[in-house]
C-alpha cells in the first residue's frame, strides 16, 4: 500500500506535455461585446480573446484576437465561434460585458440570463454600455499603449476604487432577482480620441435603455444617494465661487412620510464629513463663522445638484434608487394601495444634504 501511495505522489509531481497542449488550445475571452443592428433580431457578438502561445512550464506569450459572430442568442453565437476557430473558447476570465445602445433598448438582461448556463462563466465581470460602434472599438489592438480590454477594464477599476461609479457586476443583475432591479443605471462609455472614455451612466426603465444619460458629476451624486461610502471622493462645485472637497465619510437615510394611507414625501438625508481642499476665498484664515457659512453654502449647492438628479430619474420613470422596494419593505400596506409606476414620477422626493468640514485650517 505504501508503494502505491508513493507512486501516486510521484505521478502528481511530474509534469508532462499534456498540460502544455491544453494551455496552447485555450482561448480566454477577456471582453464580450453584444449589439443588434436595425430590425435584425440576430445578436452581433464580438470577442476580445487573450490566448497563450508558445506555452511552456511557467508561462508563455500572450496575444490578442478579435472575433465576431452572430446568433439568435448568446449561446448560439458562442457555439458558432467555437466551430469557426481552432482551440477551446473559455469565458473563465471574462472581465467585461459591453453592450451597444440598440441592444440596450431590447431588455438586455433577458438575453444575458443565458450567461448563467455557461459552466465556467465568471459572473463577477463588469456590465457596461458603449454609445458607439462596438466592433470598431473592440477591433483595436491598442489604446494608449494598452490592449483594448486592459484599457476599458482599468477605467472601470480606477473609478470604482475612487467610489465615483456603481460596481455594475453581472452577478448582481443575474442573481439579484428581477422584481425590483428592472430600473438601474449602467456605466456608459463613449467614443473619445482613438479610443473611449467613461461618460457617466445610462438610465434603464423596466429593463430597457431610456436614451437618457447622467454625466459623471451627476453619476457620483446618484452613487452617494445609493449608499456609497464616499471615502476620499473628490467633489468640485460652485456656490458663487468654486470649491473642492474630499468626502471622508458619507451617510444616507431614507425617510418615508405618509398619512392616512397616502404617501406624502420621501426624504433622502445625506450627511457628508469632508475635508476642504479649496474654497475660492482669498483668505489664509478661516473663522468659525466662515466655516459655518461654507458648510451651509456647500450643502445648499449639493442639495440643488442632487435635486436635479432626482428630477431626471422621475422624468424618465427610472427608480434606480429602488424607493419602491423600500416603501414595500417598510410600509407594505401603504405600498399595496399604490400603483408605483404611476406614483413614482409624481411623489415628492427631496434630497437634504448636511455638511461637516473636518479640517478647520487656521482659525482666528
Automatic annotation (TrEMBL):
It is a lipid-anchor. Residues 19-170 form the Spore germination protein N-terminal domain. Keywords: Germination, Lipoprotein, Membrane, Palmitate, Signal. Residues 200-361 form the Spore germination GerAC-like C-terminal domain. Its main location: membrane. Transmembrane segments: none annotated. It holds the Pfam family Spore_GerAC_N. Signal peptide: none annotated. It comes from the Bacteria. It is found in: Membrane. InterPro entries: GerAC_N, Spore_GerAC-like, Spore_GerAC-like_C, Spore_GerAC_C_sf. NCBIfam families: spore_ger_x_C (TIGR02887). Belongs to the GerABKC lipoprotein family. This is Ger(X)C family spore germination protein. It comes from Cohnella yongneupensis.
Amino acid at each position: 500500500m505504501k508503494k502505491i501511495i508513493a507512486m501516486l505522489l510521484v505521478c502528481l509531481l511530474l509534469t508532462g506535455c499534456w498540460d502544455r497542449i491544453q494551455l496552447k488550445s485555450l482561448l480566454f475571452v477577456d471582453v464580450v461585446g453584444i449589439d443588434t443592428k436595425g430590425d435584425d433580431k440576430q445578436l452581433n457578438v464580438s470577442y476580445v480573446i487573450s490566448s497563450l502561445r508558445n506555452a511552456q512550464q511557467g508561462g508563455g506569450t500572450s496575444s490578442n484576437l478579435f472575433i465576431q459572430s452572430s446568433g439568435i442568442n448568446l449561446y448560439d453565437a458562442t457555439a458558432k465561434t467555437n466551430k469557426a476557430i481552432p482551440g477551446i473558447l473559455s469565458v473563465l476570465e471574462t472581465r467585461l460585458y459591453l453592450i451597444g445602445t440598440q441592444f440596450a433598448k431590447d431588455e438586455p438582461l433577458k438575453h444575458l440570463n443565458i450567461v448563467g448556463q455557461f459552466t465556467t462563466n465568471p459572473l463577477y465581470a463588469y456590465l457596461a454600455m458603449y454609445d458607439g460602434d462596438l466592433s470598431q472599438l473592440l477591433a483595436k489592438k491598442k489604446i494608449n499603449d494598452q490592449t483594448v480590454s486592459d484599457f476599458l477594464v482599468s477605467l472601470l477599476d480606477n473609478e470604482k476604487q475612487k467610489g465615483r461609479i456603481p460596481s455594475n457586476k453581472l452577478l448582481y443583475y443575474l442573481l439579484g432577482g428581477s422584481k425590483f432591479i428592472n430600473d438601474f443605471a449602467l456605466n456608459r462609455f463613449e467614443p473619445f480620441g482613438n479610443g473611449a472614455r467613461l461618460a457617466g451612466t445610462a438610465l434603464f426603465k423596466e429593463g430597457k435603455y431610456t436614451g437618457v444619460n447622467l454625466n459623471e458629476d451627476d453619476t457620483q451624486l446618484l452613487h452617494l444617494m445609493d449608499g456609497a461610502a464616499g471615502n476620499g471622493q473628490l467633489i468640485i462645485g460652485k456656490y458663487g465661487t468654486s470649491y473642492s472637497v474630499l468626502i471622508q465619510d458619507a451617510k444616507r437615510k431614507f425617510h418615508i412620510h405618509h398619512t392616512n394611507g397616502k404617501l406624502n414625501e420621501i426624504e433622502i438625508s445625506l450627511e457628508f464629513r469632508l475635508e476642504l481642499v479649496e474654497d475660492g476665498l482669498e483668505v489664509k484664515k478661516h473663522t468659525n463663522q466662515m466655516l459655518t457659512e461654507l458648510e451651509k453654502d456647500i450643502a445648499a449647492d449639493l442639495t440643488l445638484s442632487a435635486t436635479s438628479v432626482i428630477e431626471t430619474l422621475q422624468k424618465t420613470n427610472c427608480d434606480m434608487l429602488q424607493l419602491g422596494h423600500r416603501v414595500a419593505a417598510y410600509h407594505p400596506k401603504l405600498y399595496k394601495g399604490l400603483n408605483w409606476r404611476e406614483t413614482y414620477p409624481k411623489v415628492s422626493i427631496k434630497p437634504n444634504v448636511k455638511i461637516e468640514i473636518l479640517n478647520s485650517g487656521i482659525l482666528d
